[in-house]
Amino acid sequence: MVVSREVSFHAYHSHRGMLYEPNHSHEFFVVIGVKGECNEEGFVCDYRAVKRTFNRVVKQKLHEKNLDLLFEFPTSENLAKWIWGELHFFYALSFIEVREKPHSKAVYLGPIV
Ligand SMILES: [Zn+2]
Fold it and tell me: Can you give the residue range of the structural domain that contains 96?
């Protein structure tokens, strides 16, 4: 079973190189996919706890920040990988999705093993 919780943060970034864009902001939407078996009450995990963990471990580092100062290339793809690295200690992740805009997203499925 895979369940997911959507969360968000607001931050600034630019795109360098071939897809150059000057610094601008987004509300970044993040979907945290958690896999596992249902417990005896029919839950895989507590969605509220996933959000609290995200806020504590990820959002406080990124919210209202200039991501250009934190990442060499602050793309959705790299953010998804980085968020996975921050959250995989807490949950059995299935995927991390990051959307800058409703029509485009990056989905990280974890390291290839
Ligand atoms: Zn952007």
Answer: 2-47+68-108
Prediction pTM value:
0.95
CA of 53 to the centre of ligand 1 (A): 25
| CATH number for the domain harbouring residue 40 | 3.30.479.10
Summarised one tens digit per residue, pLDDT across range 77-107 is 999 999 999 999 999 999 999 999 999 999 9
Report the C-alpha gap between 47 and 36 in whole angstroms.
Answer: 13
pLDDT digits (tens, 9 = 90+) for 6-21: 999 999 999 988 889 9
Residue 99 falls within a domain, yes or no?
Answer: yes
Ligand 1 centroid – CA 86 distance (Å): 22
Q: How far is the CA of 82 from the centre of ligand 1 (A)?
A: 17
